[in-house]
Write a structure and sequence with these properties.
The structure holds two protein chains of two kinds. In chain A, 40% of the residues lie in helices and 24% in strands. By secondary structure, chain A is of the alpha+beta class. An eight-stranded mixed sheet of chain A has the order 1-8-7-4-5-6-2-3. By secondary structure, chain B is mainly alpha-helical. Helix content of chain B is 71%, strand content 0%. Classes of the chains: A alpha+beta, B mainly alpha.
Chain lengths: 173, 123
């Protein structure tokens, strides 16, 4: 009787472990950081890609209801796929599209823009990747929606899809 | 002569203390980067990785150390930016208590079984 109880408890334990681990197999093992809603944008200073002038975040994030900050780089392949969508998005005049050029060679960045078009209101440089870390970004491309109170209200990891474009349009409506 | 020797000693000592503080900073930087997970390269610490993300994190650790932040403040900054998962040393909280308690619990249960089986039965 005692052995039977031990056996059934063991069996139950192993079944439980099996189910938990089997379910875990289907989970994605790519880490997605928790998106903290309403996180305030940290103040930063940068350099304009074209003019070479110093610009602060206070100068950039002014005069619009919503801002879309896109982190991109000329060496990043998904950024090329995403670019036409950004051009489409730039036609919406109620947003200010800001490009953050992540760890890139300015020459290559300008070549990229010349080839694919310039959707951005302003492009600022993040040569060392420090501004991106301040934003909580993990790579390129990444897009942040920021409201007029300078709060990050939404973030998109990776290349923007049609679905995310629709989401952005819904937010800024 | 004496004065010049004295000045020389002071100069050398000062230089070495400077070197020491730099070495110290490097040590802390390495320690922190070994405890921080590289989020885009699975299974590697920021210290081991050469990815753009890891290089940026190393730069920011350097920057924060130069700004005068201590080790814990840097961990807190990174956890605030990227969540608890970035640290290889999870804090004791609601989500992680099983992780911390289970080994101790299993140790005691195992110990109790051993005591019961071998020591109590022998008597």
């Amino acid at each position: 009787m005692k052995n039977k109880i031990i056996l059934s408890v063991l069996l139950l334990f192993f079944t439980f472990c099996f189910v938990v681990l089997y379910k875990g197999l289907n989970n994605s093992n790519i880490y997605v950081p928790e998106t903290k809603i309403e996180k305030t944008l940290i103040k930063f200073n940068s350099i304009d890609l074209y003019s070479g002038n110093k610009v602060s975040s206070d100068q950039i994030f002014v005069g619009s209801e919503y801002y879309v900050l896109n982190i991109w780089s000329s060496w990043c392949v998904p950024c090329r796929e995403e670019h036409p969508k950004l051009i489409k998005l730039s036609k919406n005049k109620s947003i200010k599209l800001i490009g953050l050029n992540y760890r890139d060679n300015p020459k290559n960045a300008k070549k990229f823009i010349k080839e694919f078009g310039d959707p951005y209101f302003v492009i600022i440089k993040d040569t060392k990747g420090i501004i991106s870390v301040d934003l909580g970004a993990i790579g390129v491309p990444e897009t942040f929606i920021i409201n007029k109170d300078k709060k990050i209200i939404k973030r998109f990891l990776g290349s923007l899809s049609e679905k995310s474009l629709n989401e952005i349009n819904l937010i800024i409506k | 002569m004496k004065l010049s020797t004295f000045l020389l000693i002071i100069l050398i000592t000062f230089n070495f203390t400077n070197l020491n503080s730099e070495e110290n900073n490097d040590k802390i930087k390495n320690k922190i980067s070994k405890n921080i997970r590289c989020l885009i390269c699975q299974g590697q610490s920021v210290y081991d990785s050469q990815s753009d993300f890891a290089v940026s994190i190393k730069l920011i650790i350097d920057k924060k150390l130069n700004e005068g932040l201590n080790e814990n403040e840097i961990y807190d900054f990174l956890k605030n930016q990227y969540g608890e998962w970035i640290s290889y040393d999870p804090e004791f909280n609601k989500k992680t208590f099983i992780l911390w308690i289970l080994p101790i619990l299993l140790f005691f249960i195992g110990g109790a079984i051993i005591v019961k089986k071998f020591i109590v039965q022998k008597r």
